[in-house]
Amino acid sequence: MDRLFRRAMSSGGPKVEDVLRSPKWPLTWPFSPQDFGRLDESDDGYFYAQPRIGVLHIDNGAIRSLKKFYAKNLPPKANILDLCSSWVSHLPEDYEPQGLTILGMSPAELDANPRATRRVTQDLNKEPKLPFDDNEFDVITNVVSVDYLSRPLEVFQEMNRVLKPGGKAIMSFSNRCFPTKAIDIWCRTADIEHVFIVGCYFHYAGGFDSPQAHDLSPGLFGMGDPMFVVEASKI
């Protein structure tokens, strides 16, 4: 991965915003099946059987940064799909979506999400096909869970299908994870390489414009959780 990442980078220092400005994408999908293996390959349903209601997987500073990003970048009254969702979707308190569909693994957590207007329980690693119509959503979000997708190319192709033309997909992530359930390549690479990995998902899925990266990290001198976003719009 390190060699692939260096070859793909255009020039300049390793700033998050630089990673996807003009990458030299490999001609074909650059990952192997082993890259998407996990230490714990048991049924994910067992892992998520115990609801984690009230648990926040990033700190308050990272959450505030993500909410500020949403406040500036979400279109008004958007029909939103929140993938790998839980009891909270991190939308700004004063933002009113047209609808918020949440899809996740824990029915109890989904039921506890007060902003949701529709709830779907689905394991995307078993069934990446989304149960929604073509061109249904204005925005798709995924908060700190893209690293658990073992079939990301199929999921991102489905994301493109259910987005409206011009609709945006916003993938946000930090440096926290459940290491036994995160994919292998994520666990053996660093934050800036994660940006390139998610950019690859958009690029090879097809149907998206050039992905863009943002460093929303609020901490000073390495304090607090980092927060990164990779986003792209449906062509």
From TrEMBL:
Pfam families per the UniProt record, alphabetical: Methyltransf_11
Keyword field: Methyltransferase, Transferase, Ubiquinone
Superkingdom: Eukaryota
Xref: InterPro entries: Methyltransf_11, SAM-dependent_MTases_sf
An example molecular function term from Gene Ontology annotations: S-adenosylmethionine-dependent methyltransferase activity
Sequence ranges assigned to domain Methyltransferase type in this UniProt record: 120-170
The name this protein goes by in its record: Putative Ubiquinone/menaquinone biosynthesis methyltransferase-like protein
Organism whose genome encodes this protein: Chondrus crispus (Carrageen Irish moss)
UniProt keyword annotation of Heme present: no
Any Gene Ontology biological process: methylation
